[in-house]
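User: Please predict the structure of the protein below. I'd like the answer in structure-token form so I can feed it into my own downstream comparison script.

Assistant: Understood. Taking the following sequence of 163 residues as input:
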Amino acid sequence: MIVKIKRYLFIDQCEYLKKVLACFNVVTNPTHTSLSPEFSFKPNEKQCDPKFHQKYQQLVSSLMYLIIGSRPDIGFAVVKLAQQIANPSNDHDQVGLHLCRYLLATRKYWLVYNGLSNKLLIAYSDSDWGQDHEHHKSTTSYASSRNHFLVKSQTKISSPLLY
């Protein structure tokens, strides 16, 4: 939903998020972190069940849609989930459900663009140095805004880390 009040623009996807949370049966146990501090994405050693695989793909694609519309704050976590889309494990699914519980706790968050602001440029960044135990790559994400309008966001996976 997009609401304009004076020179403010409010954007949210509360109704869509409500449907996503219901689809994955996330109605209790909200959390205030998008990823648990001890998370580690290790590749699945076994072949996953096709039905489970389809459910995981649906979860990741639903979360990607939220990133594009109104929730850039979950971008890093969703990229990590998407890296496991070829052969997810139950651990990966649990991380995805943890992220859904974060969205449950923050379901009333909106993007607010302030046309009255005189702030010129704001940038945010985050990185994950070496959590990829299989390929030894790091992930870096950033987003920048001008006058509170998202200008650019990007996630990059670097070349292998040297040990």
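That's the full token string. The mean pLDDT is 83.
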